[in-house]
């Protein structure tokens, strides 16, 4: 008797476990679909060389921010030549400003400091400013940036 | 008096309701530090009502968002008053939540069987802070924009789940009007729902498990009328306080969000300024890791307490030291940031 009873309860257990598993999978798949609906569409990165000016425009004395595409950069002459730095702070993504008096890039959010060559020298930033490739064709200067 | 299930079932609904609202509450709820839990609830109700009112004017779309908040603040009749009440109630809610947490921590009210109350409470605490953050973002001024940027990048630093979560919340790799709409939905729908569920859970566990027991104060008094009257009086007092604060300090609005310029005085609200100062002074990875560890310890504290008690530690004293250090550190960082 006991053995038969055991079998029944085991069968019962197995069948309800199986149902629970199925239900879990079904609901899980539905939940996953909901999440997929919310996740932003992935854009493929495309790089383009964009004309930003001619070599004679670039002055040593004043460094002005520019916006090309959706990218904010500083274009300047550094110790190692012409550089296009991203203005995005490598710490938590604020925008850095050029401080003329100190000759440094300053991030106002948590007082991150970078020197003229984009190197992080004080505050929280973990690495130097990101750089974009600068291409010089004759007099013209192009910067290669990601476009959406 | 012992009542059996049968007796309860036989009672008419009216009597059962009367029984329910006349449930005894312990006498120690009479002292102010022990009724700090009901005050955030009062503030929450005010914030909820004024929040719903503002959704009739707010438009969750970039410049429109800023303009509509501006209109609420300066054009719409009594708009400044409603927005002011919303702001003040949230600020006071967070302040009293801080006090409540400290009191519960110092008196170790989370001890068995109070763990569940603690978990609901910690959930409430973090959800309320999330409400504070999302609410600030909706204004779409400079603090909102750069606050969103920085917080999203902080979320992205959480191990494993961080960057997909940040991507999902932002609706892309950059803060945009999609982000604003998502935070708006969180602020006005999902988080309030979560808050209500958590408040419900917190209160239900208290009625089921009972209040924390305090040595030497075993007396009780009925919830209604004694305690309800007292809470009502406190509510009226708080309402008067809020109205006064709003009229003396009407709400203001900063310059509009500018993705091309970080204003130099972008400072978060006071309840985040300790964390803000912390991530400014400490190296990035350890700073964020510290916050994560602190949150995990905070959540699992009842277990840590039990673990240490079993090994003979005097938790009463440890908690007082720990609590005092935490409060002092919070105060010091907040003041330091204000300088
Ligand atoms: S975001 Fe630039 S220092 Fe933190």
Please describe what this structure looks like:
The complex is a heterodimer of chains A (148) and B (339). Helix content of chain A is 25%, strand content 37%. The N and C termini of chain A lie far apart (73 Å). Chain A has one helix and ten strands. Chain B has two domains: 247 residues, Cytochrome Bc1 Complex, Chain C; 40 residues. Chain B has 14 helices and two strands, in the order ααβαααααααβααααα. In chain B, 72% of the residues lie in helices and 2% in strands. Chain B is globular, with a radius of gyration of 22 Å.
Core attributes:
heterodimer, A: 148 residues, alpha+beta, six-stranded antiparallel β-sheet, four-stranded antiparallel β-sheet, 1 helix, 10 strands, B: 339 residues, mainly alpha, Cytochrome Bc1 Complex, Chain C, 2 domains, two-stranded antiparallel ribbon, 72% helix, binds FE2/S2 (inorganic) cluster
What does the average pLDDT of chain A come to? Answer: 83
Strand arrangement, largest sheet of chain B? 1-2
Principal-axes shape call of chain A: elongated
Q: Into which percent range does the helicity of residues of chain B fall?
A: over 70%
Q: What order do the helices and strands of chain B follow? A: HHEHHHHHHHEHHHHH
State the low-pLDDT regions of chain A, or none: none
Oligomer: heterodimer
Alpha-carbon distance between the termini of chain B?
A: 59 Å
Short description, anyone?
The complex is a heterodimer of chains A (148) and B (339). By secondary structure, chain A is of the alpha+beta class.
Secondary-structure topology with pairs:
The complex is a heterodimer of chains A (148) and B (339).
Chain A: H1 2-38, E1 46-54, E2 65-68, E3 71-78, E4 81-86, E5 97-99, E6 104-107, E7 112-114, E8 120-122, E9 131-137, E10 140-147
Antiparallel strand pairs in A: 1-10, 2-3, 3-4, 4-9, 5-6, 6-7, 7-8, 9-10
Chain B: H1 5-10, H2 13-21, E1 24-26, H3 38-55, H4 62-74, H5 79-107, H6 115-138, H7 142-156, H8 162-170, H9 177-209, E2 220-222, H10 223-248, H11 270-281, H12 284-299, H13 301-310, H14 315-338
Helix pairs in contact in B: 3-5, 3-10, 4-5, 5-6, 5-10, 5-14, 6-7, 6-9, 7-8, 11-12, 11-14
The structure holds FE2/S2 (inorganic) cluster.
FE2/S2 (inorganic) cluster (FES) is lined by residues 89, 91-94, 107, 109-110, 112, 123-125 of chain A.
